[in-house]
Design goal:
Length: 390
Amino acid sequence: MAMIPPAANARADAYFEGGYWLILWGFLYGTVVSLLLLQLRWSAKMRDLAERITRFRWLQTTIYWVQYLLLTTVLGFPLEYYQNYVREHKYGLATQTFGPWMGDEGKSLLLGLVLGGIIVVALFAIIRKLPNTWWIWGSVATMAFMVVTVAIGPVYLQPIFNKINRLDDPKVTVPILRMAHANGIPTNDVYEIDASRQTTRMSANVSGFGGTMRITMNDNLLRRGSLEEIQAVMGHEMGHYVLNHIPNFMMFLFILVVVSFAYLRWGIAWALKRWGERWQIRDIGDPAVLPLVMLLGGVLFFVLTPVTNTETRRQEKEADMFGLNAARRPDGFAQAAIHLGEYRKMRPGPIEEILFFDHPSGFDRIHSAMLWKGENLELFEKPAAQPAAH
């Protein structure tokens, strides 16, 4: 911790604590946008336009979705621009100029139109077909969609934004693959992603399922991290795979999704009974109800932020300990935590950590690494020379 200059520490604290306010402002901003679409009947007008264009229900839903996403993207752009462009540049974490950044924003929008359109059309079809049990089957469909997205992400989605190449540097790959094979991870390649075109942050992951599973690190980690840091970080990421964190988190999300759909079933019925006629929304199968869904969902997930953060932080802590045991690079792990401290608060208060941290704090990680090293000093001390036999 003493290696971090006070000015850098203050800068990181200011950046991270500003994120607390962005959680609130993001929630309020989204709430206002949803209320505008409902109160001014823009949502109903977009539905009416879709119905004038075609008589097919699934196509009406698709046309509505395109209008909805384009309008909310435009209305939400000021906050998006400040949060992910202006602010990131202010703290020296972004590398893109405005043009390439807008290019990535456009790609995200196109992905949202396609992937979002698929799930929205499917969910409204379920609602219309199964009006009494839609919330159960909607939960199942949503989780199936999420699993497919996670599975195809490394191979089909990431390359839309970044170049991914097989890494051929033996001094980097050999220790990583040796560690992977020792822990039952079925891969013979390590991939590099050119994240430096967007950010200065260091990161890595073990992602995907089965044939799409990949070990990937970004070029910032390769350029800025020592070999010890790289091995420590990759040991952590392998921990997520070996400890089944992806399927376990999917199960956690499934429970959360079922609870969310049950809450939506009650909340939408209550809201439509009171304001449905005023908003010109016919019933729960009407695509014009989507802003209400987003409004209610935003309230729920804002309240559940500490819950989701705590579950993620628990898994990250488990992966930290796995990585220390697998890589045996406590100094590298501590140095990586210092690098991450460029944009994370290193030493929060206990309540602050519970509410806002989805990873263990930098202090917690460095402390854990040094405790591990202190209890395993024999791995780092050279054995005393033995006297020659006579």
